[in-house]
Design goal:
Blueprint (H helix, E strand, L loop, with lengths): L1 H13 L13 E7 L4 H19 L8 E7 L4 H13 L5 E3 L4 H14 L3 E3 L6 H4 L5 E6 L1 H15 L4 E6 L2 H18 L5 E5 L7 H8 L5 E5 L2 H13 L7 E4 L7 H6 L7 E4 L8 H14 L6 H19 L9 H13 L20 H4 E3 L1 E9 L5 E9 L8
Parallel strand pairs: 1-2, 1-3, 3-4, 4-5, 5-11, 6-7, 6-8, 8-9
Antiparallel strand pairs: 10-12, 12-13
Length: 401
């Protein structure tokens, strides 16, 4: 709450934050809906607003200011859709950023497609988001269809093929399980040794872990949101499953609550993500230092890096778009922004590989980041540590067979 209060205090103080319902000619109106129910989630929102303020302080976009409206959807699909409708039809935004949770982004895609508003996805990985065929959506994070291939290859070649699956009901986790299962079957001809489909905020995994313990599996995939994943990891050790059974995380394992809550149970967990704080590139070291100083973050996860890259790509596109920014030109300006985002090619930022888009409303064109990073925890707790195991760039059509 303290951080959230700072966010909104800062927004009021700078004038960058909540827009009024009036449409201001000459302003570029950006609506943002994200999951801000945790300290990290609040910091994601604040960082986006801080970076937009920095653009404005430097003179804006060709002399025009960005007016940003930040809203919290709490990872609830109905709230996310309501936010999107308010931003589009009351705030008359030119561009929508959102959301964090795939279960929220998925229905918003239908809203932005119908309204003709460009939508940039900051965090959501579910492959179905770009498979809807909307010409208005662009994904900054790595799609789950790529993650599934990277995870399966590493697991099958280094861990084994007898894998138990714990799959939470949120859209990203459902997608991560499905992609992993599909790739393990395609590459190694195996089905899950055990599969449990659990609620999004499940708290008791003990019965599942007891069954898994008796099966002598090679590994356990836990696909869930961060807090749920941490509980499952702890309970796997409480059930007596030794560290020789490797724990595999979905991309949510990159979020700081996993090692902080799981503690020693996080050690040895590996996962795929779009960014590693252990990255030795100068740009990564500078970003790590910035997030530590600004937001008190020990090590930024890939949701920080993806939100940051999104703002940079947005800035490039807005500078390249031919915008009139009059009340009568709203539809025309939205189309111009869409086309400018689609023209971004070879963006080099915090992501481990280049991000490129193209005009066709296909996953090949709209899943812009194809380079996944395989990351392992070497230490859990508040001062957790990670290592980079591999970087893998996938073909544009991977996972669409």
């Amino acid at each position: 709450m303290k951080l959230m209060n700072k966010v909104f205090a800062g927004l009021v103080a700078t004038g960058v934050g909540l827009a009024t319902t009036a449409a201001f000619a000459g302003d570029i109106r950006v609506g943002i809906t994200m999951r801000m129910v945790s300290e990290n989630g609040q910091a994601y929102g604040q960082m986006v607003m801080d970076e937009i303020k920095a653009i404005n302080d430097a003179g804006g976009i060709n002399g025009n200011m960005i007016k940003a409206t930040l809203m919290n959807d709490e990872c609830k699909s109905d709230k996310g859709v309501a936010n999107a409708n308010k931003l589009i039809f009351q705030e008359n935004i030119h561009l929508l950023i959102g959301s964090t949770c795939s279960s929220v982004s998925l229905p918003i895609v239908d809203v932005t497609a119908k309204a003709g508003v460009p939508q940039m996805i900051p965090h959501s990985t579910n492959a179905k988001i770009t498979q809807k065929g909307s010409e208005w959506v662009f994904r900054i994070p790595v799609s789950g269809r790529y993650y599934g291939g990277v995870n399966a290859k590493y697991v099958g070649e280094n861990i084994g093929s007898k894998i138990a699956y714990i799959c939470a009901a949120d859209a990203a986790s459902v997608g991560d399980c499905a992609n992993m299962e599909k790739q393990m079957r395609a590459r190694f001809g195996v089905d899950p040794a055990y599969r449990a489909d659990v609620q999004e905020k499940e708290v008791d995994f003990r019965s599942h872990m007891q069954k898994i313990k008796s099966m002598n599996v090679d590994g356990i995939l836990v696909a869930a949101l961060a807090e749920t994943m941490a509980r499952a990891l702890i309970q796997s050790y409480e059930a007596g499953i030794g560290e020789d059974v490797r724990r595999i995380g979905s991309s949510s394992a990159s979020n700081a609550p996993v090692p902080k809550i799981a503690g020693d149970a996080a050690k040895g967990v590996f996962f795929t993500a779009a960014y590693a704080a252990a990255d030795n590139r100068p740009i990564a070291k500078l970003f790590n230092e910035m997030t530590r100083k600004r937001y008190g973050i020990h090590a930024p996860d890939h949701d920080f890096s993806q939100a940051y890259d999104l703002v940079r790509i947005m800035e490039i596109a807005l500078n390249n778009a031919d915008l009139q920014l009059e009340q009568w030109s709203l539809k025309q300006d939205r189309t111009a922004i869409r086309d400018a985002i689609a023209s971004v090619e070879g963006y080099e930022g915090l992501a481990s590989g280049p991000i490129s888009f193209c005009a066709a409303p296909t996953p090949q064109c709209r899943d812009g980041n194809r380079t996944a990073v395989l990351i392992g925890y070497t230490k859990g707790g508040e001062n957790f540590e990670t290592e980079v195991l591999a970087r893998v760039t996938m073909e544009p059509d991977f996972g669409l067979e």
